[in-house]
Automatic annotation (TrEMBL):
Signal sequence annotation: none
Gene3D superfamilies registered for this protein in UniProt: 2.30.30.90
Protein name: Ferrous iron transport protein A
Keywords: Iron
Organism in which the protein naturally occurs: Evtepia gabavorous
A Pfam family reported for this protein in Swiss-Prot or TrEMBL: FeoA
Any GO molecular function: transition metal ion binding
Amino acid sequence: MNLRDAVEGKEYVVRQIDTEDEDLNAFLFSLGCYSGEHITVVSHLKGGCIVSIKDGRYNIDHQLADAIII
C-alpha cells in the first residue's frame, strides 16, 4: 500500500521508495523519508497530504505519496 491510501493519524513504517527518479529519491531522503523510517499522515488534502516525519511536518503531493510504499 502507498501513502496515499494511509489512514490519518496512524503511524506506518516506510518499506520502500518506488521511483526511478534520483532527484525525487534525494528530496525524500533530505526530509528523512527512507526505508525503515516511521511516517504518519496528519491529513489528506485535495492536492496531496500532510505527513509527519521525525520532528517535521511536510505537505507532499500525490506523486510523492504514490512513491512512498508503507
